[in-house]
Structure formats: structure tokens, C-alpha cells
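1st attempt posting a full record on here, be nice pls
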Amino acid sequence: MNIRLREKMEDRDGWGQAQGLRVREKLRADIEAHPQEVIIRISLADVRYTDITFPRTAVIELAKSYRGKRGFCLVDVRDPDVLDNWDAAARWLEQPVIVWENDEDYRILGPQPSIGLQPMLQYVLSISVARTSEAAEALHLKVQNASNKLKQLWQEGYILRREQSASSGGVEYEYIRIA
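the predicted structure (as C-alpha cells):
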């Protein structure tokens, strides 16, 4: 799901909690109207400036409320200075948000994954869907270790996961990058 944030705003600048609340309700209505959409791409095209409170209230709180079920990322960021306030808002709420510059280059706003989780996150972000056995093989890890890392990244909000039926008759998780 692609949402142009500017279309939800009163003008090109996003300031304060009051405006953030109005925008958040518009975003929530759009998201709830599309329950099948699990990845929400927020475009910052034509957004000029924001303070810290606006993104925290409008988008980051929303992302945190959907953590584990839906993932939010930012695209079309023209001014890297705008991201400083978004990063501060994401850190404030301890909610990671990935900014995609293109299909391969990204930046993580908010809390950073631990050093032990970084290679796994880089792996998942480099492909569209990861499975535990494939991730373990790619990173030369034991399956249980890979599984624990993937689960932790999902719980902390860096990636999404969905259940699939395994050929053994059990459940297998697929881990999905938020892009």
C-alpha cells in the first residue's frame, strides 16, 4: 500500500501533535480500509519540513501500534535533513522505520539492531522473503540460532512474518522485508 503523506496534510509542513493526530486518523482510515495490505509505504514526496512531534504522532505511533502485523517504511525522501526529526521520533518511541532510497539502499531510523542481529537483518532486507533454513545456510548458522534471530527481528519491528504450511505438516514462518 502506497500512501502520499502530503495528501493527508494541510500544507507541505508538518508541525505539532494536533496536526499529527488529524493525519494519523486519516492514515488509519486508509489502512483499515485495506486489511489485506501488510506493508505500508509512506511517501514523503512534497513534504518540506516536519518537527519531531508531527511524525511521532502521525506515523511512528501508528507503526508501533501495528508492529508485528503490518510494517511501515518511508520512500521518496528528497531532503535528508527531514529524516533527522523522523529519526528522533522513531528513537523516542523505540520503533524502527526503514527508509528506502531505492530497492537496495536503505537507512534504519530509530533504534538500531544489536550487532549480533545486523547480518541477519541485512540478509532479510536483501531479498523479498526469507525462510529459516535458507537464512541459516546463507549466514552459516545453526537453524535454531537463525530462527531465534529472525524471531527477535520480527518482535522488535524490523521485519514481518507470516505462517505457511510446512511440507512436514507443521508450520513454517516466512520473514518478509518491509519495503
